[in-house]
Every structure is written in structure tokens, then in C-alpha cells.
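Async update (no meeting this week)

Hi team, since we skipped the sync, here's where things stand on the single-chain job. The sequence we agreed to prioritize is pasted below, unchanged from the tracker. I ran it this morning and attached the output directly underneath so nobody has to dig for it. Comments welcome in thread, and please keep replies under the output.
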Amino acid sequence: MSMMEEKRITEQPSAYRHLERMTVGELIADINRENESVPRAVHRVLPDIERLITAVEEKVRMGGRLFYCGCGTGGRLCALDTVEVSNTYGTDRSMIQAIFPGGLRQLLCPEESHEDNTDEGWQQLLARGISERDVVIGFSASGTTPFVRSTLARCREAGIMTGSVCNNPGSPISALADYPVEVVTGPEFVTGSTRMKGGTSQKLILDMISTTLMIRLGRVEDNLMVNARLLNDKLIDRAVRIFRHRNPQYTDYDAIRRLILKAGSVRRAEELVGSSGGEAVL
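Output:
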């Protein structure tokens, strides 16, 4: 093991031995026990997460975009977040984007060697017109991934605001971030398998970043997804129920459904109702 690996808590030996001898019950109980520590680790760095989100919100309100940069599990989670947040809150897909080694086409069949490329991340950002108005957040469990580290370094040279999320203290990507978050989740159940606790912590933080940002930008009203895209019958039905909850004077399910499909979202349907004095749902 190299000196760098020895310093990485995420690469330290698992506290559990001879996993192959365990029963299914023992394995899942111990995995769950380890997972329970992740929210506590995230809780300890909430002030850092708050500073990061506050800075991102300021950039986005001024017309900037948020870029996630990650490899492996973290990169795939980043890409998933960009898809889900756009669908859930009906935002332009350019507002939050992800860059991934080899491009997003590599998500399902990644060539892990791409994460050692020290120029590609910056080239992907240049292709998307990166500027000082934007912000880039790097995700790396180890905090050392060359793709992420070099991308943040180039952003810093160009005067672009940076953030980072990693699972080791004092990591190289933290040193390159204006707003670093180091959520120390400890050794993994399977030694070095950071798709487990490390990945779980990154998913929790991604949820916090995008959800908080969307709420702050007015994409949620009360606690409801009034701007969600109408992608399938389940989401259309949810939209109808939300509309009826907010506008109990309207009771005709089919009429409301037609209105929402015409409008494209609950919020826009309510705007149609308001502008027509209710005639739009008759």
C-alpha cells in the first residue's frame, strides 16, 4: 500500500473480517450498522454544506449554472441528480449539469481509465461555455481522483468558483475548492468499496444541494412539486391530486387532468384558471 493510500481513511481495512463466512443475516445486519453512521457523518459537516449551497444559490440567481464533476459512483450519482431535479422541478436542463470521464455515454459501461485523464474534464466544461458566472463542484470519495482534481485546478486558474465533496480529511480536491465539504465516513464494510458509505453520503449531500436550491428558487410551493414534468400516468395523477388539494372548488378529475396536460404543470394550470376566472376547467 502506498503512502497516499495509508493516509486515506476510505482505504483503511474494514472492521469486519472473513465476510465470506457470514450468513446473509449477519452480512445485512453489519452493512446496515455501518450505513447508520453515514447521516451522523453528514450532520457533522452541515455548516460546510450550508456555505456551499448558499454560494451556489447566489451564482444561479445571477444566471450562472451548476456543474457537478465526478467519476465512478460519485459521477453516476451526480448525473442521476441532474436528470431527477430537472424532471421533479421542471427546470431547464442546462441549470444543473454533470461532466463524467469519457462523457455521459460512459455511465453504464465506464472505462475507469478515463478518470486518470487530466484534461478531459476541463475540455468538457469549455465545450459547454463555462465562465466565471458558473460554479463547479467536484465529487471524489478519495479526494485524489485526477479527473476531478485537475478540473478543479483549471477552474481555479480561470477564476471559476469551486466546491468539493469527499470522504477523506485534508484531501487534494479540498485544497482546490472555495467551499470544501469533507464528510468522513470511515473505512468501508468491504475494504475500499466507496460505492457503499462514501457513495451514500454523496447521495445525501446531492439531495441537499439540489432540493434546497430548487426550494430557494421557488420551484416548490408549501411542500408540493407544482412544477414537475408530466412524464407518465403516475405523475399526471399526482399533479391532479395536488391541483385538487390546492383548489378544492374544482372536483371534476377528468377536466382537471385535461387542463394540466394542456398547461404542462400544476403551476401553469393554476395560472390558466386564474386568467380565465375558472372557465378553463369547465
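Quick observations from my side:
The chain has a mean pLDDT of 92.
The first strand starts at residue 66 and ends at 70.
Reply here if anything looks off.
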